[in-house]
Amino acid sequence: MSALRDFGGRGVHSGLSALGGFRKFILRGNVVDIAVGIVIGVAFTAVVTALVKDLITPLIGFFGSIDFSKLQFTIGKSTLLVGDFINAVISFLILAFVVYFFVIRPVNALTDRFKPNEAPKTPTSRECPFCLSTVPLKSTRCAFCTAQLPPAEVPTDQTPAASA
């Protein structure tokens, strides 16, 4: 037990505090959400793979009188499972279609809808032409070199009202 007590200055307690940080990381909301998404994705992939293997591929073979799911070639001692590859490609295409049209497009539309309208900002400062320091737009003297500044150019959308 004395060997454990001398381990790393704080002993066993140093390892337990590291587990506390790991627990805090795991219990964050986005880590749990990602884990749930992965589990649902794996289950959905299994359903789509079964759909393709048991329904779609035999239907394709019905039109050509070939059972694509059992299609294979033997070259020497190697067996090429072409039917399994066709099943995997069709499954991938269905999954990509579903993810794009039912996840990516709605999320993009939602983020575009709630994105704040970014109006071009009007400048609030300008550079001094003598010392190149940044000074407020309405200043008449530079705070750094005390030079007399030319009048500021007012942006066209903020022209001052004409005095009567």
Note down, in words, how this protein is organized.
The model has no long low-confidence stretch (mean pLDDT 78). The protein folds into two domains: 2-114, Non-ribosomal Peptide Synthetase Peptidyl Carrier Protein, Chain A (Orthogonal Bundle), CATH 1.10.1200.120; 123-152, no CATH class. Helix 3 packs across helix 4. Strand 1 (73-75) and strand 2 form a beta hairpin. By secondary structure, it is mainly α. It has four helices and four strands. It has a two-stranded antiparallel ribbon. Strands 3-4 form a two-stranded antiparallel sheet. The protein has helices spanning 2-5, 12-26, 29-64, 82-114; strands at 73-75, 78-80, 125-127, 134-136.
Overall geometry: elongated
Helical content class: 40-55%
Number of strands: 4
* Distance linking N and C termini: 93 Å
CATH third-tier fold name of the largest domain: Non-ribosomal Peptide Synthetase Peptidyl Carrier Protein, Chain A
CATH architectural label of the largest domain: Orthogonal Bundle
Q: What is the oligomeric state here? A: single chain
Amount of beta strand: 5-15%
The CATH class designation of the largest domain is Mainly Alpha
Whole-number count of domains:
2
Profile the largest sheet: 2 strands, antiparallel
The CATH superfamily name of the largest domain is Large-conductance mechanosensitive channel, MscL, domain 1
Order of helices and strands: HHHEEHEE
* Spans where pLDDT lies below 50 across 5 or more residues: none
